[in-house]
Write a structure and sequence with these properties.
The complex is a heterodimer of chains A (636) and B (368). Chain A is an alpha+beta fold and 636 residues long. Chain A contains 24 helices and 19 strands. In chain A, strands 2, 3, 4, 5 and 10 form a five-stranded mixed beta sheet that branches. In chain A, strands 12-11-19-18-17 form a five-stranded antiparallel beta sheet. In chain A, strands 1-8-9 form a three-stranded antiparallel beta sheet. The longest helix of chain A has 36 residues. With 368 residues, chain B is mostly helical. Chain B contains 14 helices and two strands. Chain B has a two-stranded antiparallel sheet. Chain B is globular. The relative contact order of chain B is 0.14. The chains are: A alpha+beta (636), B mainly alpha (368). At the A-B interface, helix 1 and helix 2 of A face helix 7, helix 10, helix 12 and helix 13 of B.
């Protein structure tokens, strides 16, 4: 609506209006110009740091070089885990221009199967920029060379000379060392380390590899290159080489470790050897095992299924995760407890083939007649110990068992322990809300009933009895106090004497496992643990799963103990039959390698070759028989 | 009709210095953008500048009467060309902005930026002063602006359509139409913005949305703005040095020699280079604004103001775009960006303004 009372419009008015408005327009233009200048100043001064950074991150592409993993070596510096050269092919997605052609060529040249192609396509879709996508690893020199010569025709393909984890003794160290594997999505989310998504990088997944990951991992190197927006490399700027991870020194004796693993043969079980002077674990074996080399290369579904299907449970570390009734191996311990509670070791008890408790008769394995304490240990007379337990009650014995390491969880690098049960009346009341009975004591004293231990604890018990000190097992040089046990020397001497008689005495239960050495004798104690309930079946035959476990604890030499060990052979039908001979051979190995190797080679000829030969053959047989097995899911 | 060549002292040396300064700086940037080479852009741009400078000086010698007489005719001619482009595009199946004349590609929409200013200046110079506040002063002007703007929008070319509108509206503004008309039109336009937005093409809508939030799509359409800001910001105060701009040399900056040449420049010359260039543009616009204020005829006043705005609009929109203050609309930086069409338009503007200046020197003011 035009205003009614406006001044008359003349040319002069119009001229003035023009001048005013033209100046207004010019002024407006200057204001906008000044605002633009201010905006530019803001971007280039206030935000300068941020944009310089973004410009640099545009210009420079950083490629991480995965660090070489630190070695794991034994007490003499011999490698238990080291690195080998691994030839690999990656794809850099940003440089891949003719995807179909390049992938087709790779498929032909490297003979990739459909599964692999599917994975590569999936990874390529998820990847962005310069994050390499793995095509194949552990290539032969021939395959690698075939890619190298065609490289000019394959833009985006990046051959790499990397490193892979190598375990020289394979399955012998599986449960000791653990294994490495490619980090999974959750691990990446947790640590946000860009190295985790670099192909070829591995982190410790289990055992010592996992425990010592911070030490072993090292520091990645980096290659900086200047690239164009299309990913063309203009020039290399600089390269920082990686820093290898630190070496981890173990107390393990690699040769003994391998010997023990091989000597276990086709049996399922565990053996731990401890240095009685300082608690060093010299050998830590659980068999059968897996080959950690398979895991570090990325284990196949079928190989994993094969390991899972095995009823000997190669994936379980029986040395710390296997719990067994210890059987008669607890008798030297019970003897110490009895002497500490005032029992005279020379006091005799007559074995009539068992022990009567009220209306029940607890059987002995023989009829031993009149026995004193050392003889009862030597002959493993149940009646004698039933009598002791009935007299003292198990609450008097259990503290001694605990002092000797049973029921104890040790501070041991990288191990995941199940530490079992040493029962007493308070424990039973808490767990079952029932009072302790005399028959519970009788069962417990011969290592049955509620009692369960793992093989590591057995070895520690042997080492503590042998040394008289409270030794703590260790895998690395870690200082423990190892103070003297609060037992009288006499009590310890009786237990050691009894164990000496078991091997070297007349009619000892492990008499056949005497060391074939001059001047060096082994002391020990056998144990046979029933798998089925007491007094049902004889456990000496029939189906493997129902046979008795064979156990053995030992130390040598008798007069000045240096080595102690605990061995469990699952369903081995008896300690003297299955476990003690293994101890005899590896104790021999510690003093006379040639003699021990001779024995081992004889055995292996009968078993069908070395561990690796047997595993390869078993796997091949399994695969031909169960190739259509459902996917069990591989842990990553 | 063409006057005899003037004496040396009558050549506008100061103006030539300003134009050469801006273009010469642009040539250095083009040299660097080509990776330190005069080809393919710098030498061609230099030759083109010399030719167009000559054309502008010749236009500057024309009597102003000619522009006034041919203002409507020229406008109608360009409008026909716009329709022709539209029809050719329709026949060819797709959008087309130029006509192939054999020796060059002619963009009629570029010519329209000049033609609309001349036509409106003629219209308002002939309008009796008493009609300034009447309907008679409004509807023909709206028709004159609306037709070509609509045709250019159909191409579709949002930036040029806006330039045509802005040039025309400024002529209307300085011709003395009531202030509140513009105020209410601006308010109505703001209210109708959502409707107008919905009329835009998908890719244009996307550009606007990405302008509002460039980080939402840093590798897609927001890439231009992000990379441009990185180039300007990383230059800092003194720049990375001649030939040292990584953003442009490593191709991170798209269109580094045309629409985004300012970012290429700022990366290597920094804030100092940017302020220097702004100073050059300021001197050019100050010259043409002075010509407008001192013009002898009303047609000259209105034309010079409108053409000044046309030049300013190029500069402002381009700089706002590269600094992330406006959507990516594809408007080059006058005299600086590589390209013939925009330089032709600018030099034509400069030539006409020069003619108005020369006209003012001929005699006393006679505002008819």
């Amino acid at each position: 609506m035009p205003r009614k009372k406006s001044p008359p419009i003349t040319e002069a008015w119009r001229g003035m209006t023009f001048t005013r408005r033209a100046l207004l327009v010019g002024g407006g233009q200057m204001v906008i110009g000044a605002a633009l200048a201010a905006r530019m100043a803001y971007i280039s001064i206030i935000d300068n740091d941020r944009y310089v950074l973004e410009s640099e991150s545009n210009r420079v592409n950083l490629t991480l070089i995965p660090p070489r993993r630190g070695w794991i070596v034994d007490r003499n510096g011999k490698a238990l885990a080291n690195n080998r050269v691994s030839l690999r092919i990656d794809i850099i997605p940003d440089r891949l221009h003719n995807k179909e052609f390049v992938l087709g060529q790779l498929r032909t040249l490297l003979r990739l199967d459909g599964d692999a192609m599917e994975r590569i396509n999936r990874d390529l879709q998820a990847a962005s920029g310069f994050q390499p996508v793995a095509v194949a690893e552990n290539l032969s020199e021939g395959d690698y060379a075939s890619i190298l010569v065609r490289l000019p025709d394959l833009p985006g393909v990046a051959p790499q000379r990397g490193f892979a984890r190598n375990y020289p003794t394979g399955a012998a160290v599986g449960h000791l060392i653990g294994y490495v594997g490619a980090p999974n999505a959750e691990e990446y989310q947790k640590d946000k380390d860009p190295l985790y998504i670099t192909p070829g990088y591995r982190i410790g997944k289990d055992g010592l590899e996992k425990y010592f990951q911070p030490l072993l991992k090292g520091q990645p190197g980096a290659k900086r290159v200047e690239v164009t927006a299309r990913g063309k490399v203009v020039r290399d700027l600089d390269t920082k080489s990686d820093i290898q991870g630190k070496t981890v020194h173990l107390t393990i004796d690699a040769d003994l470790q391998e010997y023990v693993a091989r000597r276990m043969g086709r049996e399922s079980g565990a053996a731990v050897v401890i240095d009685c002077e300082n608690g060093d674990i010299l050998s830590f074996v659980s068999m059968p095992s897996f080959d950690p080399n398979s895991f570090s290369d990325g284990i196949s579904n079928s190989e994993y299924a094969w390991l899972r299907a095995d009823d000997h449970q190669p994936l379980i570390n029986k040395a710390t995760r296997g719990l067994y009734p210890p059987g008669s191996t607890l008798k030297p311990m019970a003897a110490i407890a009895a002497i500490e509670h005032g029992v005279d070791p020379s006091e005799r008890h007559t074995c009539i083939g068992g022990y009567r408790l009220g209306s029940r008769f607890f059987r002995c394995l023989g009829t031993h007649g009149s026995v004193d304490m050392p003889t009862a240990i030597m002959k493993s007379c149940n009646s004698y110990f039933y009598w002791l337990a009935h007299r003292l009650g198990y609450d008097a014995i259990a503290p001694t068992a605990r002092l000797l390491g049973l029921g104890e969880e040790f501070q041991l690098a990288g191990s995941n322990q199940r530490y079992g049960t040493i029962p007493d009346s308070a424990w039973k009341m808490k767990k079952y809300d029932q009072p302790w009975s005399a028959s519970d004591s009788l069962n417990a004293v011969i290592g049955q009933g509620y009692v369960s231990v793992n093989p590591l604890q057995l070895a520690v018990m042997a080492a503590r009895i042998a040394s008289g000190r409270r030794l703590y097992p260790r895998l690395v040089r870690r200082e423990f106090k190892n103070e003297a046990l609060p037992f009288s020397p006499d009590a310890m001497a009786v237990a050691r004497h009894g164990m000496d008689l078991v091997v070297n005495g007349p009619g000892g239960t492990a008499g056949r496992s005497r060391l074939p050495l001059d001047g060096i004798a082994m002391a020990g104690k056998t144990g046979t643990a029933q798998v089925r309930g007491l007094n049902t079946g004889n456990g000496k035959g029939g189906s493997w799963r129902f046979r008795d476990h064979g156990l053995f604890i030992c130390f040598a030499p008798v007069d000045k103990p240096k080595y102690a060990a605990g061995i469990v052979i699952e369903h081995g039908m008896g300690g003297s039959r299955a476990a003690a001979p293994v101890a005899k051979d590896f104790m021999t190995f510690l003093y006379d390698r040639d003699k021990a190797m001779e024995a081992l080679e004889t055995f292996e000829a009968g078993w069908g070759g070395t561990i690796k030969e047997r595993m390869d053959r078993d796997y091949a047989a399994w695969r031909s028989g169960a190739s259509s097995d459902p996917d069990p899911g591989v842990p990553q | 009709m063409i006057p005899v060549p003037p004496a040396i002292q009558r050549i506008p040396w100061k103006l030539i210095a300003i134009l050469s300064g801006i273009t010469g700086f642009g040539l250095l940037v083009l040299y660097s953008a080509a990776g330190g080479s005069w080809s393919p852009w710098a030498w061609q741009q230099g030759v083109r500048f010399l030719v167009f400078l000559g054309v502008a000086l010749v236009i500057g010698r024309f009597p102003i009467r000619i522009f006034e007489d041919f203002a409507y005719l020229g406008y109608i001619g360009v409008l026909i060309l716009l329709v022709a482009v539209e029809l050719l595009g329709f026949v060819g199946g797709g959008s087309q902005r130029w006509l192939n004349l054999g020796f060059m590609n002619l963009q009629p929409s570029e010519l329209m930026k000049v033609a609309i200013v001349l036509a409106l200046a003629r219209f308002y110079s002939q309008l009796p002063p008493g009609s300034t506040r009447t309907w008679t002063a409004l509807w023909p002007a709206l028709m004159l602006i609306g037709l070509p703007a609509a045709l250019v929008m159909l191409q579709p070319d949002l930036g040029t359509a806006l330039a045509i509108c802005v040039g025309g509206v400024i002529v209307m503004f300085v011709s003395g139409l009531p202030f509140w008309w513009f105020g209410s039109a601006a308010a109505a336009g703001a209210a109708a913005l959502p409707v107008l937005f919905s009329l835009l093409h998908d890719y244009q809508q996307k550009r606007v949305l990405i302008f509002l939030d460039p980080e939402s799509d840093p590798l897609g359409a927001g890439y231009h703005i992000s990379q441009s800001k990185i180039a300007i910001g990383s230059g800092g105060i003194g720049g990375k040095g001649f030939l040292n701009g990584s953003q442009s040399h490593l191709d991170y900056l798209p269109e580094g020699h045309t629409d985004f040449i300012f970012a290429t420049m700022a990366e290597e010359w920094g804030l100092i280079g940017g302020l220097g260039l702004l100073l050059g543009f300021f001197l050019l616009l100050r010259w043409s604004t002075r010509v407008a204020l001192n013009a002898r005829t009303r047609f000259g006043q209105l034309t010079a103001t409108g053409l000044t705005m046309t030049i300013f609009f190029y500069i402002a929109i381009n700089l706002m775009m590269v600094m992330g203050l406006a959507p990516v609309v594809g408007i080059p930086l006058p005299l600086f960006s590589y390209g013939g069409s925009s330089m032709l338009t600018i030099m034509t503007c400069v030539g006409i303004v020069l003619a108005i200046e020369n006209d003012a020197k001929k005699g006393s003011r006679r505002l008819q």
